[in-house]
């Protein structure tokens, strides 16, 4: 691109940010074309043109004033149009002939009031311009055929309609841009909310995985420490359980973190992301818990049906968290029961134990419950369920949650 073209583009961009300067240059250019035409060219002979006065200094001043008023056509379009109408009416009364400059200024004034003002002001300006134009045609001594009169009137109306349509188009485009900006802001807010929700979900998943498996490993390690001197075989078995539970915990943590990976990452690793656990994995969970020495029994009532994937994961994690808390707080010789009730439209999950069932179950003081119970409430509420947690009659603690089968 040549330096001349780059300079011209830069100048046009500069004028676009300064519309009044652009209008002033346009008015000066129009005047530079109109004044020589007014004084140098002779009027046509006949058809009444000989009745006009010869152009003089006053005529030139009036033409210059009318034309240069276009400098303010965007800031005050109605006032500029009225000024142009008054100036041209004065020239018509004085008998001066029309020129290219004042006729073009009149049409630009009609366009400006329609393009830069609302319907009320643009309608007033258009009506004033049309009435003036009819009066001007009557006042000038030039003989015009009806076809010429109709064509000239249609030109004035057409210029007004053009300005009005361009104004409506600009308003429509501005509304589209504003709507796009609002949608962009809303999308940003939704994305932030989704990130916050995803972080909370991942935090719940990690808490459930880590708390459960670490609790199992802690119980097994304590048992191995107590019996390692007198029963090395049982201690080795406990150590094997710790190793297996640790590997399971790492596997589940990789699966949770794997949700954050992209499909490209999964392809590079050459494997698909594993699904989340559900009630179908409940048997393996209870086997891990039984290996710690906690007696757990499972009852399933009603016609077993597959819940929605979200409810399936939430129910599994709730049972996992409840059994983890039982391991932590129920004490030795405690027993636990897990019950699943399948109703017509809902699934009820109950986890109870006959341990100590104290306030330590919540993992903190009264005003600061542990993350486990908070995660339970969040999971159940997320799928429109109900959750009740509290001591059992006769001792122990219980967790009861109802999930709709379809979240």
From TrEMBL:
One example GO MF annotation: protein dimerization activity
Catalytic activity annotation: ATP + protein L-histidine = ADP + protein N-phospho-L-histidine
Protein origin, superkingdom: Bacteria
Record carries keyword Kinase: yes
GO cellular component, one term: membrane
Enzyme class at the top of the EC tree: transferase
This enzyme's EC code(s): 2.7.13.3
SUPFAM superfamilies: ATPase domain of HSP90 chaperone/DNA topoisomerase II/histidine kinase
Annotated protein name in UniProt: histidine kinase
């Amino acid at each position: 691109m040549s330096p001349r073209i780059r300079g011209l583009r830069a100048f046009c961009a500069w004028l676009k940010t300064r519309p009044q300067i652009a209008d002033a240059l346009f008015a000066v250019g129009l005047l530079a074309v109109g004044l020589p035409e007014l004084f140098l060219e002779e009027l046509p002979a006949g058809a009444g043109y000989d009745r006009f006065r010869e152009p003089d200094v006053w005529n030139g001043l009036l033409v210059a004033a009318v034309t240069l008023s276009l400098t303010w056509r965007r800031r005050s379009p109605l006032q500029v149009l009225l000024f142009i109408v008054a100036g041209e009416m004065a020239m018509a009364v004085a008998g001066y002939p029309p020129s290219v400059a004042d006729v073009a200024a009149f049409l630009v004034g009609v366009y400006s009031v329609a393009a830069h003002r609302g319907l009320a002001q643009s309608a007033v300006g258009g009506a004033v311009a049309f009435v003036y134009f009819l009066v001007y045609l009557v006042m000038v001594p030039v003989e015009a055929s009806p076809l010429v009169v109709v064509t000239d009137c249609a030109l004035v109306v057409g210029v007004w309609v053009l300005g009005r349509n361009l104004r409506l188009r600009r308003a429509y485009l501005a509304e589209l841009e504003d709507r796009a900006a609002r949608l962009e802001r809303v999308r940003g807010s939704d994305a932030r909310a989704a990130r916050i929700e995803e972080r909370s979900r991942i935090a719940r998943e990690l808490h459930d995985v880590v708390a459960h498996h670490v609790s199992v490993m802690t119980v097994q390690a304590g048992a191995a420490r107590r019996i390692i001197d007198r029963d090395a075989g049982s201690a080795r078995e406990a150590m094997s359980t710790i190793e297996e539970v640790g590997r399971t915990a790492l596997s589940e943590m990789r699966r949770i973190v794997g949700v954050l990976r992209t499909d490209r990452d999964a392809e590079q690793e050459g494997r698909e992301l594993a699904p989340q656990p559900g009630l179908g994995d409940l048997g393996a969970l209870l086997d891990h818990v039984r290996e710690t020495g906690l007696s757990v029994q499972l009852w399933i009532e009603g016609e077993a049906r597959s819940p929605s994937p979200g409810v399936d994961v939430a129910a599994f994690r709730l049972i996992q968290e409840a059994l983890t808390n039982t391991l932590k707080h129920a004490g030795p010789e405690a027993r636990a029961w897990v019950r699943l009730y399948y109703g017509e439209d809902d699934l009820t999950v109950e986890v109870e134990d006959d341990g100590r069932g104290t306030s330590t179950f919540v993992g903190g003081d009264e005003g600061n419950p542990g993350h486990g119970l908070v995660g339970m409430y969040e999971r159940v509420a997320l799928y429109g369920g109900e959750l009740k947690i509290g001591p059992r009659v006769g001792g122990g603690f219980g967790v009861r949650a109802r999930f709709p089968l379809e979240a």
